[in-house]
Design a protein that fits this description.
The complex is a heterodimer. In chain A, 92% of the residues lie in helices and 0% in strands. Chain A is an all-alpha fold. Chain B is an alpha+beta fold. The longest helix of chain B is centred in the middle third of the chain and has 18 residues. The relative contact order of chain B is 0.15. Classes of the chains: A mainly alpha, B alpha+beta.
Chain lengths: 49, 153
């Protein structure tokens, strides 16, 4: 039970940090931007095989 | 990838959060691996260190626990678990430091034979060009995209 509660607390903390840490937010935004710009190429390469 | 790795648990299936404990020179450190949705069924993977005493979570901690190869073997096992459970997803891997990037490149290169039997691996060059992973590429890739191959009948 204690472990479940600990995990729940940790999960909430992770969610919070992913949304609020400026470096993590920017890293994800940059990666998203790259993916959006290269969407077609990625789709083609990933579906070809 | 049959390298020694830490055991891990999926602590939140809905959000794809995994956890494992690194044990080394500096003691035990809880590591968190998260998969964040981007687009195209593509997920970004991030590694965080969790300090239970301070409650801090950071992707920039240098823990110096002298177990890097075990940590990276575990990350790849977690990615494998994630992709096996979500066969239509792809994972975007980009290190947040040059040292970690070199390690990702080395691990993929050293395990390519095994990896290429199961995964499609794309490499992103410094100039942002994307291509199928080339083992004889002289420069390190800056990011990777990995997806399970379709099962052949």
């Amino acid at each position: 039970m204690e472990k479940i509660n600990e995990n729940k607390k940790l999960v909430n903390k992770i969610k919070e940090i992913l949304q609020t840490d400026p470096k993590l937010v920017r890293k994800l935004e940059d990666a998203k931007d790259f993916v959006i710009k290269n969407e077609e190429k990625l789709r083609t390469l990933l579906e070809k095989k | 990838m049959n390298k020694a790795a830490y055991s891990f648990e999926n602590i939140d299936e809905e959000n794809y959060f995994y956890s494992f404990v690194s044990t080394g020179k500096m003691g035990t450190i809880q590591k968190i691996v998260v998969f964040q949705e981007m687009s195209l069924l593509l997920y970004n993977v991030a590694l965080l260190d969790y300090n239970k005493n301070t409650g801090d979570l950071s992707d920039e901690t240098i823990s110096n626990n002298q177990d890097l190869s075990m940590i990276f073997a575990t990350i790849f096992k977690i990615i494998e678990d994630f992709l096996q459970n979500n066969t239509h997803f792809s994972v975007y891997i980009q290190a947040n430091s040059e040292t970690k990037n070199k390690l990702y490149n080395r691990i993929i290169k050293n395990n390519l034979k095994d990896l290429q039997t199961k995964y499609i691996i794309l490499g992103v060059r410094e100039n942002k060009e994307i291509e199928y992973y080339l083992p004889n590429n002289t420069e390190n890739y800056t990011a990777f995209v990995v997806r399970m191959m379709e099962k052949q009948n």
